[in-house]
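testing teh design pipeline on a random one, pls ignore if ur not involved
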C-alpha cells in the first residue's frame, strides 16, 4: 500500500483502538500490515492507511522539493507541532511521497459547508468567491478530482478567515444585494466596493459579506 504513514503503537493498544483513532477499519490495517491479533507491544510500528483524515488532523503527501519547515510555515503551525503530530518522523531522514499528519490548527474553527458545483461556477470562480486555495480545497475533499469538477457534484468549502477588525453580516433568505443594503442602511455601491471579490449575483442566502467601516 503506497498511501500510508508509520504509527508507533502504545502499550496495550489493539488494532480496533488504532483503527478508530485514525478513521479506518481493522481490515484496512491488516491489509497494510498483515494479521494483527490481541494487544500490541509498545513501540510496534504499523502502516496506517492515509486516504482519510483523522480527529487529530489531515494526512498529507510530501511533494518533491518540500521541507518540513516549508510545510509547517504554509500550514501556519510550528515545526515542533508538526513533529509532535508525527512522533515516528525523523526530521533528518524523510522523502517525497511520504505521508505525514498535519495537525489541526485555528483553521478548524472556520465554518465548513457544502457547495453544489454548477455550470456558472468553474473551478477558478469557486476559488475566487470563497478565497480558498487549491491545496485547501483538495484537503477538504479527499477522493475528488478537483481539476475535474462537474455540475451537480457536492464539495466542501471552508470560509475564509474573518478580519478581527472588520464587521460582517450575512445575506438573509429571499434577500439580494439591494435588500441587504436597504436593511443595513447602506448603498449598493458601498457593499460592492467592500466585497469586490463577489459578483452582484453572489449576494445570496447565507453569503457572508464585509460591511464598510463607518
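output:
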Amino acid at each position: 500500500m503506497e498511501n500510508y504513514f508509520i504509527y508507533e503503537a502504545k502499550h496495550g493498544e489493539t488494532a480496533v483502538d488504532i483503527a478508530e483513532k485514525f478513521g479506518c477499519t481493522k481490515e484496512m490495517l491488516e491489509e497494510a500490515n498483515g494479521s494483527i491479533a490481541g494487544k500490541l507491544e509498545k513501540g510496534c510500528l504499523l502502516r496506517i492507511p492515509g486516504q482519510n483524515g483523522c480527529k487529530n488532523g489531515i494526512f498529507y503527501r510530501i511533494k518533491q522539493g518540500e521541507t518540513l519547515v516549508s510545510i509547517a510555515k504554509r500550514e501556519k503551525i510550528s515545526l515542533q507541532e508538526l513533529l509532535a503530530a508525527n512522533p515516528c518522523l525523523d526530521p533528518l531522514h524523510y522523502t517525497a511521497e511520504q505521508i505525514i499528519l498535519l495537525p489541526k490548527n485555528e483553521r478548524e474553527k472556520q465554518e465548513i459547508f457544502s457547495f453544489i458545483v454548477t455550470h456558472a461556477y468553474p473551478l477558478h470562480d469557486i476559488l475566487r468567491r470563497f478565497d480558498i486555495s487549491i491545496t485547501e480545497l483538495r484537503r477538504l475533499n479527499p477522493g475528488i478530482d478537483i481539476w475535474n469538477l462537474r455540475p451537480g457534484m457536492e464539495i466542501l468549502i471552508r470560509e475564509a478567515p474573518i478580519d478581527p477588525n472588520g464587521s460582517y453580516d450575512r445575506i438573509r433568505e429571499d434577500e439580494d444585494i439591494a435588500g441587504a443594503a436597504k436593511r443595513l442602511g447602506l448603498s449598493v455601491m458601498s457593499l460592492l466596493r467592500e466585497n469586490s471579490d463577489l459578483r452582484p449575483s453572489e449576494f445570496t442566502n447565507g453569503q457572508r459579506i464585509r460591511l464598510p467601516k463607518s
